[in-house]
Each structure stands twice: as C-alpha cells, then as structure tokens.
C-alpha cells in the first residue's frame, strides 16, 4: 500500500515539494500453535540484523526497492495493532526515522536501513507491543519504505499486485526471526497492509463478524468517512466523525425493533425473550471489543425509541 504522510499536504500535488509517499507492509510470522510465545522485542543489534535480511528479501522481489529507505523495528505485533485508523504504528516508525541521524531521505543510489531495537529493555516512542494481544499465532514485524515519489508509487503497485502470492521470506530471514525472537516459525512471508486487511476480513467472516467489517474497513481506509450497520438482527451501529456509535436499546425499544411479535403471555415466552435480549447485548459488547482492539473509539448512545433509532446516532 502506498500512503501519504498524514501530516502533509494533498498527496496529488505536483512538483518538487510534493509530500513523500510510503509503502506500508509487514513480515508476517505464522507460528506453531501451542508453542512458547518467545520474546516480543529485540535489542538494537538483533533488530539491525533482521532488518538487513528483510531489505535483501524485498529487493529480491522488486530490485528497485533497494533504492528506498527501509524503516522497521525489532518487535512483532498482533494484527489489530497494525490495523488501526491512521496506521499509527507505521506512522510512529516514520516519525522516529525522520528524527534519526542522517536526514530524512535516503541516498539516490541506495536506500538507508533504519532499524529500531530496544535499549535497556525499552523500545523507543510508542513501539512497545501490547501485552493484551500477545497470544496469537500470527505475528507481524512492520516495515515502511519511503523515498522518491515515482519509485514509491511503482514499487508499491508491484507489492500490492504480487507480494501476497510471491512474497515468501528467505530461509535465512525466517531462521533469523525464529532464533532472535525464540519462536517456532512455520511460515514467513511479506504483506502490505491492504493484504493484511483482506486476510483479516476473511478471518472475521469465518468468526461470524462479517457484518462489522464494512464499518471497520471504513475506519481504516477512510477515517473521515461514514458507514452504517443497520440489518436485523444485528446491533445498530454508525461510524462517523472517527468513532463508532452503538445504539443502546432499552428493553422496550429492543422488543419493538427486534421482537415485534405478539406480547408474551407465559413465563416461558418471557424467559425466551430475556435470553434473546441478553444475547443481543453480548453481541454489542463483542462488536465494541473488536472495534476497540482496532483503536476505533466506541460510544454507546441511549435509545428509548425504536422508530427513531437511526436519529439517535446522528
């Protein structure tokens, strides 16, 4: 994926002062299920050694990638830590690299490699992986490529069209990541953040979360956009103004919207409705947890009137 610097002007502005674009991606490590988690961070020398191998792999896939500056970190993360509005982890890499010695741009003939590792057990900036998402078997080492605008657009396009299918990491890279992090790596490959989003969409579909994905996709790819989930029997959600608003129905309003059948006259019927209402609330909490994990702000909005539910989320 090529993406403009979020702090810069219009990325389509022509001329020598047009802002840089970036290629955002990750080295994906598929781990053996049930194996030890290993360590999530590497010291500076370990981060540099892995970054050199990553740069070599990317240049093998697209030779002109060697002309770009590679920025990465000696750490691995859960997908939800990368798939967040504004791509904050990649943005942090870019901001730290801009302050690194040697200036912001690579040489024209060959790009620099900048790798951030831990010092005295701490990674710089906001690069520390969250312990809340440390147990998965799919881990990601993010990287960012930057440089000449024309090169970035062309190489980014090549990555988008072929990296997922042909971007297997070199054997040396996989072994280095396995040894350095203390992991059992079954497969190692490269992805763009678009590839990662597509894979996550499929995983969420298998997990029964497909109705939520359009909102999350809007938050990721168009943070200033708007999206609705308004499809019974799912909760009512609206993504707008950078947040997800979830209608919090009172029991009466929920009954009117989701269970408008004849009134219950038996205890068994009332108990069944109560279970359905509790299941609905659990679904709301599930959606809120997924959105929150992806860094999307969630706001529950009281809704006492089923007929005006959409208006409550305005």
From TrEMBL:
So which domain of life are we looking at?
Bacteria
Q: What is this protein called?
A: Uncharacterized protein
Query: Where does this protein come from, organism-wise?
Result: Marilutibacter chinensis
